[in-house]
Amino acid sequence: MSIWVDADACPGVIKDMLFRLAERTEIVVTLVANRHLRTPPSRFIKSIVVPAGFDVADKEIVKLAEPGDLVITADIPLAAEAIAKGAVVLNPRGETYSADNIGQHLSMRNFMEELRSSGVETGGPAPFSHGDGHAFARALDRYVQQRKPIN
């Protein structure tokens, strides 16, 4: 089991939680971004730098993720591809994307994109909050507990 992070837009507080998780559980966490990111020294924390370009990091994550791996992203199309490959997807606000709900998320994303392209001001997502961090931590803990080997 590995954790793949769409790291360019991932909040620092989420990365810090993942770094602590990697050390505590010995699960490999890999940040994928189009620029170098500082990571603490650890054999369980890795970073992959991809060339700049549209969806280059997303494609790398989809290529490397395996069934059962966890992908951390707020990018809905990346989430859909990762789910199709058998990965579990969690966004930085603690929401789990699944085969049951990804179609609805894709439809809403496409609808909002159409509104923006027609000149409608839709605003962006709400600022990342302390509550979002707590929701993420709870969802991450559930994921790890569900996959913990039984001794």
> Beta-strand percentage?
15-25%
Helix content: 40-55%
- Rounded to the nearest angstrom, the radius of gyration is 16 Å
Pairing-aware structural class of the strands and helices? alpha/beta
Rounded mean pLDDT is 90
- How many strands? 6
Order of helices and strands: EHEEHEHEEHH
Shape assignment: globular
How are strands sequenced across the largest beta sheet? 3-2-1-4-5-6
Largest sheet: 6 strands, mixed
Distance between the termini: 17 Å
Number of helices: 5
- Runs in which pLDDT lies below 50 for 5 or more consecutive residues are none
Overview of the structural elements:
There is one protein chain. Helices cover 44% and strands 16% of the residues. The protein has a 6-stranded mixed beta sheet with strand order 3-2-1-4-5-6, with helices on both faces. Strand 1, helix 1 and strand 2 form a beta-alpha-beta unit. The longest helix is centred in the C-terminal third of the chain and has 18 residues, at 130-147. The two termini are 17 Å apart. By secondary structure, it is of the alpha/beta class. The chain has 5 helices and 6 strands, in the order βαββαβαββαα. The mean pLDDT is 90.
